[in-house]
């Protein structure tokens, strides 16, 4: 029981201090920032930044730094969120494995509610979107509900890294 408690997200949150939060915030703004740049911004030694980054990775606080790209640059101008209810004979892990092989899938989340998953698709056009939704059905979706994305709101998530506790 104590080992499980030590690894819980609540326990990890307590081991992140103000400097770690500032470091995470700086990485959020520029995931490619070099250790020297981060050290200068935080007014601490390069070695201290390196130690903190290693510790944050080891504790699972910093799971990775990823590139964010605009799918439209690749000609994928039609995006949609598709609510998926799985067929009774398809498990979520099996369906998730199939999603990994689908070219149009940008991401997915599992849900508790009306749908089992929500899948983010990026397609060339409406014909390509229709093909992608059929591919979801072939993979085990019993029903789908498609919503076109008009615009993506950017710059969200930074408030998670503030020192203030939510009200």
TrEMBL record:
GO molecular function: sequence-specific DNA binding
Entries under CDD domains matching the protein: HTH_ARSR
Residue span, HTH asnC-type domain: 16-77
Gene3D superfamilies recorded: 3.30.70.920, Winged helix-like DNA-binding domain superfamily/Winged helix DNA-binding domain
GO biological process: response to amino acid
A GO cellular component annotation in the UniProt record: cytosol
Signal peptide region: none
Assigned keywords, A-Z: DNA-binding, Transcription, Transcription regulation
Protein name: HTH asnC-type domain-containing protein
Species assigned in the record: Planotetraspora kaengkrachanensis
């Amino acid at each position: 029981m104590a080992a499980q408690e030590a690894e819980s997200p609540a326990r990890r949150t307590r081991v992140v201090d103000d400097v770690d939060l500032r470091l995470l915030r700086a990485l959020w703004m520029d995931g490619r920032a070099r250790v020297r740049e981060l050290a200068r911004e935080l007014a601490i030694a390069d070695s201290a930044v390196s130690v903190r980054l290693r510790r944050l990775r080891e504790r699972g606080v910093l799971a990775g730094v990823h590139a964010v790209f605009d799918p439209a640059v690749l000609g994928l101008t039609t995006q949609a969120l598709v609510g998926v209810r799985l067929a009774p004979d398809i498990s979520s892990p099996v369906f998730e494995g199939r999603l990994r092989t689908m070219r149009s899938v940008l991401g997915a989340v599992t849900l508790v509610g009306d749908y089992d998953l929500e899948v983010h698709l990026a397609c060339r056009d409406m014909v390509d979107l229709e093909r992608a939704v059929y591919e979801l059905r072939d993979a085990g979706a019993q029903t789908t509900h498609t919503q076109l994305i008009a615009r993506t709101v950017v710059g969200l998530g930074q408030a998670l890294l503030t020192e203030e506790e939510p009200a």
